[in-house]
# Entry
Amino acid sequence: MRNQDDIVMVSAVRTPFSKFDSAMKDIPSIDLAIIVMKEVIRRAGVKPEEVEEVNYGGCVLAEMALELDVPARQATLLAGFPPENISLTLDKACCSSMTALRLGVRGIRAGDLDIAMAVGSENMPRTPHLAPGIRWAKRLGHVKLIDPLFELGYHAKGFSALAKDAGEVALEFGVTREMQDEWAFRSQERYAQADREGKFTGELVSVVIPKKQGDPIVISKDESPRRTTLEALAKLKPVYGSPTVTPGNAPPLSAGAGAILFMTRKKAEEKGLKPLATIVAATCASTAPRYIASIPAITIRKALYAAGLTMDDMKLIEINEAFAAMPVVSTKILADAEENKWNALMDKTNVNGGAIAIGHPVGASAARITMTLAYELQRRGGGYGVAAICGGLAQGEAVILKV
Ligand SMILES: CC(C)(COP(=O)(O)OP(=O)(O)OC[C@H]1O[C@@H](n2cnc3c(N)ncnc32)[C@H](O)[C@@H]1OP(=O)(O)O)[C@@H](O)C(=O)NCCC(=O)NCCS
# Structure
């Protein structure tokens, strides 16, 4: 018997994820969010006034600041949600849109609401340079510009660049540069195969960019995937002081948005909606900042414990490719470093490729891996799956789905 209190995903959609130098680079992240927020309820036939809470994640604050603040509030109003709608903007780095989902799940479990939406939106290529001190500028002297995208490091407060931590810790775990390049190659190959099979069409909504003259630009596919070879990957130089992370085994800087609509099973049945997946667990964890490559594994273990399940129950795994180091290190931890088990886990991880190929608009990626997992479990006839993501200074989120 299906529990009426179960929380089910009923609709999930994302924009294509852009390359760095894309026509999407001038679209505010708020506007990308509006596209997916409208589309996710349109597909489910749910009215804006029925959505009781919208949690909205994003973390490139300098880009959001171009529209001042409260992007969630601005986006809900502009997307046609009533002024009474409750919304929250949150930043938990790359975890943000899964945190948005977890908060909605909590609200439903607490009995505060029945229908919630999780949104993630980011436009990294639109991020402006910052010019601190200009307001109180000296009468004489150079102007210093800061690029918040450069290194995505937390140097200002004495922390390290993510790519440096991830690469160093990967080596500590015996995960070499070659293994990371092999993963990157596989990510591109798997994406290409999945794309040939039309696997992304269901989760995508196009971005239409009007032009002053002529037809609008229509972006309906991810822009970053590229075919490559292991030889070409091996030639790339590491970036940001990392021993292993290169432009080939790191994701590109992207724009994109995703939204997930979820509710109690009871509500879905009342509305005649067929669930995409049941949200079995939504869990967070954190560890020492340097160990960011291991946090997906730690969070997955915590989620499995909460759900009373084991890795063997998981048919599919999504681990966000913040860098190739994350899925490779985390699957090794989950396999207790047993070679056969590790290979088996890697086999069922990111079966349609990951952020290295697709792109990583940081606040939106967690929504993408969650919906990708649900759609792929559907195609494979159901089962359990887990999606996990790491975020700034070794925070993690994981969600277990059942189809
Ligand atoms: C890595 C990074 C600095 C690269 O930026 P970039 O220099 O603008 O990237 P490019 O696409 O121009 O790639 C650089 C070079 O590598 C090459 N390259 C990239 N991917 C390749 C691949 N898969 N195979 C072969 N060559 C590749 C490019 O062709 C380019 O070569 P060129 O310099 O001869 O033209 C940038 O994408 C980045 O910062 N990524 C990490 C983002 C991040 O940290 N995300 C958060 C994680 S939590």
Notes: The pocket of coenzyme A is lined by residues 20, 94, 152, 162-163, 226, 228, 232-233, 236, 239, 247-248, 250-253, 322, 360, 362 (CB under 6 Å). The radius of gyration is 20 Å. The chain has a mean pLDDT of 97. Residues 49 and 261 are 13 Å apart (CA to CA).
